[in-house]
Amino acid sequence: MGFIITGGASGIGLATAHLLHSKGKAIMLWDINQPALEEQAKLLHAPCAVVDVTDSDAVIQAMQTASEQLGKITGVVHCAGVAHVGAFEDLTIKQHQQVIDVNLKGTVHIAHAAIPYLKQTQGSLVLIASSSSFYGPPDFATYAATKSGVVGLAQALRLELEDAGVHVGVVAPHFTETPMLKESKKSPMFEGANYTSTADDIAVAIDQMIRLRKATAIPGVMNKLNYFLATHLPEVGTTIVRAIWKQGKRKRK
User: Is the pTM here over 0.85, yes or no?
Assistant: First the structure.
């Protein structure tokens, strides 16, 4: 019995793998980056598989193989994701499509393939959203749209799978020190916000979510404040996002 961790070769996925492994959990790493994946899997003495989450047939086959290797699947932590940052009209359609394909379609593929196995174990499905799902910030339009979609998917699945005993949780980090942060730094929103979390911080939130079977995790005090403003005081939230955006622009001049 064990956990599948997608995006397991780096960032939040790798940090989560290390934390779960340190607690004696069996893990299997999935990633599309084969060299990095095999290196990290070797260090953790864990099985791994090169999986493209945009390929639904490949995901289904990989899930079957993982079930055979792990015995049973007690959890799936889906961390694989991409970002292309910049003004909406400046990014190419191919860039927008890749973000949609990996972040939203890929999440649907993972969830659909995992659910039958998680029903057998009453296990956990943990999805990664983003603070951009609270309020879509400039330069992150399509990324925010996909992460809002992940939140909506998690909310629906939580109720659909409740009677089957499957736990569905969604984590919404702010800027996090992962390889993806290099892309985020292209936006003035990064300078304006001026705070980050570590991948280890998010891994701790994921571990707690699984143990307590929590529905939502919003790591970080400022992140929680952003969530409150965006959901309860949207006009104030708009004002703050605009101020962060303009402050970031001023810092770049």
Answer: yes
